[in-house]
Every structure is written in structure tokens, then in C-alpha cells.
Specification:
The chain is built from 10 helices and 8 strands. The protein is of the alpha/beta class. About 50% of the residues are buried.
Length: about 325
Amino acid sequence: MRAAWRRRGAFFIGVLSTLAAGCAKKSAGAPSPVAGSPSGGVASLAAKAPRAVASGTVADASTEPSCNAPRCATFDDAKAAFARVLGEDPVVLAIGEAHALRGSERVESSTRRFTRDLLPMLSGKASDLVVELLLPNPACAPATKRAEKAERVVTEHQARTDQNEYVALGNAALTLGIRPHALEPTCADLRRIAGGGDDAVTVSLDVVTRLARESLERYAAANRTAHDARMVVGYGGAMHNDLVPRAGFERFTFGPVLSRGTAGRYVELDLIVPEFIDKTASWQALPWFAEFAPAEHPERATLFMPSAHSYALIFQRSPALTATPRGADAGQP
């Protein structure tokens, strides 16, 4: 399996669903993809959730200091914050990130941090990892090639290392006994993307949303049949995993469907590199944006819980950048 994953990795089509400014401008029918999910009302969601975190606050189940905001706490490192999230014991844990953009390579990405620090914590707890990369389909090579060209409106904004880091994530999962999976589009899917024209981004997001949802549902169902208590983990852009989609983004989100299918044992976690945050409307729309003060705890990990079973984990600033004044870095709000 490891060799097959590595061979296929060289031919992945692309990483989709990112907080890439300007994507929507190049695709008339697509809303601008954003990271995170809007607040959906903690009380209404909590009423449906029997777990210990149903009160909707991070601090309730944490001895860590708060970050002077409701539904928020800081931790010594991302591992401690991640352990807090894993305490929910999800059936499906859907992890999203704001992909590293081109020119940001000097800052360590969410994918690298997750692979090195957090993925090992899933050993023995996760059976499968669904990585949000589209595989080529050898049955329709021309459509694959045209689809890859159509997707460049998104991938051209991303760091050149993004795709390789996703492949490395799959390899690391294998060594931990976690089965990695990419998304396998049909020829019809690829023809849709290739023929999307100005709506190629919308079509691509549609395809990725469906394939990711189907994969997560399939592996979770297999675990139920096998009486396997381990979770299934998804890793991709921070939009498809939203539990409470923003208006107009519902079709690109599988969170509500998977939450219902797991009787509420679905957890959304967004991983955020603070240096990537800026003052664009997409970031400002996120429920934790106004409460996040990067200068207060730059050396600590911050965990927000905008709504029940929905988290945003903001990593510590990179060591070399910890002393950077607020606003002085290109990725700093």
C-alpha cells in the first residue's frame, strides 16, 4: 500500500478549497472559498449534543488559561489543544486548513505541523485518513489533463510545496498504521471540471465535496460493520468540513450530513497558521477573528470553539517570527 500511495502521489491533480484571494473573481459562479465556519448559535447546537462539551465552551473542560474571550483557551502547544479536541471521541474528525499560499514558504504550513506533531496522536485511534487530493483516472487521461489545467485558477495561488506535503502526510499515516486515501473522480467528474469554463472552480468544489463526503461515509460505515471503534479522519481545505456553513456555501459543505449520519459524533477542526491571517473579508467573516489577539499569546496555541463540536486551532507563531510587531508581517492582520 505504501508503494502504491507514493507512486500515485506523483500524479495527484491538485489541492482544492483554500482561502486564496481572488479565486472567485476568476470563476463567475463560485463564492470565494474561505477557511472556518460561522457561528451557528452554541445553545441550539448544544441542546442536541449529549457530550461533556455541550456547554459550548473550551474553558469548561480545560484547566488552561483563557484568552480573554468566550469559548476560547490557550495551551502550551498544539498537541495539548489537539488532545482537548480528541476528548470528544468523534466517529469522524474533519480537519480543514487554509492552504499555504505562494510566497509563504518561509513559514511552516499547517500540513507540516499536523504531520509532525499531531498525526502521531492518532495512532491506534484512527483507521483511515481521507486526503483532499484528486487522483487521475487512467481510464480517461485526456479528461484528467484538461481538468488539471482547469484547476490552475486555484492551484496557481498555492505554495509549490502544498501537494508534496499532502503526499508526505499520506506516507506518514501509513507508517502509523492509518490507511491513507485520496479522492478518486470518475471520468464524468473530470469531464465536468474540464468543461467548467468560468465555473471550473465551482464545479471542482462540487466534485471534491461529494467525493470527500462519500469517502468519509464509506470508511465510517466499514468501521461500524467491523465493530471498529477507531475514527475516520478527513484532511483538506477549511470549508468542506464546516458544521454550520455560511449562507451560499451549503453545497460545498459536508459537515451537517456527516453529523446527522454519525448521530452527532462529527467534529470539525480548522488548523490556522497565524502568519497567514490577514484583514481580508474572508478572514474577517470567521467567528473567532475579532476575538483573536495574536500579540497576547504568540508562544501558545489558541483553541476557539465557535459552536458545539466545531473548533479552530491557531498554532503558535513561528519562533523566528514571535517578536514581529502586529501588522508588520505580510500574513499578519
